[in-house]
Every structure is written in structure tokens, then in C-alpha cells.
Amino acid sequence: MLGATRKLMAGAGVVVALAAAGTAQAGLITDVGFFNTLPTALINFEQDAMGNNISLLQGERLTMPTGAYAPLGVEFVGTGSPVYWVNDGNAAFDAAQTLGASPTVSIPSSLTNAFTINFTVNVRAFSFFVANNRLADATGPVFVARDASGNVLETANWGAAFVDGTIQIPNTTADYGIMGIYTSVPIASVTISKQAAILDDLRYSAIPAPGAMVLAGIGAGLIGTRRRRA
Predict the structure, then answer these.
(1) Based on the structure, what is the number of domains in the chain?
(2) Contacts of 60 (CB under 8 A, 6+ apart)
(3) d(CA 112, CA 175)
(4) Tens digits of per-residue pLDDT, 96-111?
(5) 20/17 Cα distance (integer angstroms)
(6) Are 163 and 202 in contact (CB under 8 A)?
(7) pLDDT of the residue at 22
(8) Residue 223, pLDDT above cutoff 50
(9) Residue 230 lies in a domain
(10) What is the CB-side half-sphere exposure of residue 71 using CA atoms within 13 A?
């Protein structure tokens, strides 16, 4: 825990240096506590943007229209298959959601292993709650954030840094935790690939530029120590 704190605080120094040099800066989010001091929007997928409840039976899915969350500045576009709201029938995923996310509905279903998020509002930080079936896919999801010109800002690869806990039941081992990216320039899109994972609770924020982040007091909690869940 102390080592993680030192690494994060060292990263704050890098933010200062990069800001002074005018270089785009990016990093990874491993805890929802990152957003504690920021104005943050949350899509929990239990409702659409108009507040209509998404009610699904266990194991049921529902096609998500591309514009379902457009009023909130977010569009979900499937690659080869639409993005679905899903009430996954995996008991380990259900248990993980109970511990760390909104309880029932997630995205994008087992039929969709690649999709893109387009942000139409100013976003410089985002995260998902992720649950990944390690037995079916030891690699886990990959997030690639890009700017409006298509340049890669940062890539997040699922791994131990994001795992807060593990649910083990017969034939399934679900690792779960928070996975996200922050940058010093707006994120226009995020491409996501996965094989055996669900994503829930999208948080996103128009985080200030790196220099402002430091002046606002990153060390006071913006990038605090990782919070481990029971």
C-alpha cells in the first residue's frame, strides 16, 4: 500500500514536469476515489439517459440504441455486433457486482467483444467497474483512449493493478475492480476489446489540465491510495 502511494505521488511530480513542457500527459485509474473531488457523471446502466428503467431477467439482454446515452454526451457503437444491456447469468459476476457496482445490469454481453465509446462532451477521465472471468480469458479487457485526431493517448490492459478482489465458484473465477484512464487533453473516443468480461458503472469527468490538477491538490485525494474491497 505504501509503495503504491509513493508511486502515485511520484506521478504527481511527473504531471508538473510534463505540464511545464506542454506535453500531453496520461495515466491509469484504479480506484473510484480518483473522482471524489471532481464533478463526475455516472452511467450505471440500470436506466437509459431519460431515466427509463432497464429491467432484465437473469441471463436476458436488450439491444442498446447507439443514442441511448447521447443526451449525456456518450455514444456506444458496437463492432460487428450491437452493444447490449445485459443481466449476466454468471453467478460470480453477480457476486462481484453486489460488492463493487450497481447490482443488476451491465454491458456489452457475450455477443459483443469489441465496441467504441464516443464522447461528445469534454472528458479527460473515465473508468468502468470490470469483472473478468479469468478461466475463460486470462488477458482481460483492453481500453485504448484517443483524441479527436485519432491519436492514442493511453492504453489500459487489464491486470493485477486493477484487481480489487476475486470471486471463485465452480468453473468460474471472476476478478473485479476499477479500470480507467485520465489524460491532460480531451478524450474523444475509447475502443474496448474483451472476451469474457462485463463492464458496469461508467464514470467520466472533464478533469482539469495537469498543472491545475496539482494546484488543486492531487495529493489530497485525487490520486490517493488504492481502496481494497472486502
Answers:
(1) 1
(2) 86, 87
(3) 20
(4) 999 999 999 999 999 9
(5) 5
(6) no
(7) 52
(8) no
(9) no
(10) 6
> Helix, strand, coil proportions of the chain in percent (round to 5)?
20, 35, 45
Q: What pLDDT sits at residue 2? A: 30
3-state DSSP assignment of residue 58: coil
Reading the block at residue 174, the C-alpha cell is 471472476
Mean pLDDT calculated for residue range 34-59: 95
Q: Distance of CA 77 to CAs 26, 119, 192, Å? A: 24, 11, 10
pTM of whole model > 0.85? no
Residue of higher predicted confidence among 214 and 34: 34
Segments forming the whole domain that contains residue 138: 26-209
Residue reference for cell 479469468: 134
DSSP state of 110: T
As given in the structure block, the three cell numbers for residue 125 are 477521465
DSSP alpha helix (H) spans, the chain: 2-21, 91-100, 210-216
The predicted pLDDT at position 69 comes to: 98
Residue type at 209?
A
Question: Domain for residue 3, yes or no?
Answer: no
Strands 61-63 and 197-205: unpaired
Residue 108 neighbours by CB under 8 Å, 6+ apart: 64, 76, 78, 83, 84, 86, 115, 199
Q: C-alpha cell of 139? A: 488477458
* Predicted pLDDT at 32: 95
CB 83 within 8 A of CB 105: no
Phi/psi of residue 136, each to 5°? -90, -30
Q: Is 4 domain-assigned?
A: no
The reply to whether omega before 208 is within 30° of 0 (cis) is no
Alpha helices by DSSP H, listed for 128-227, are 210-216
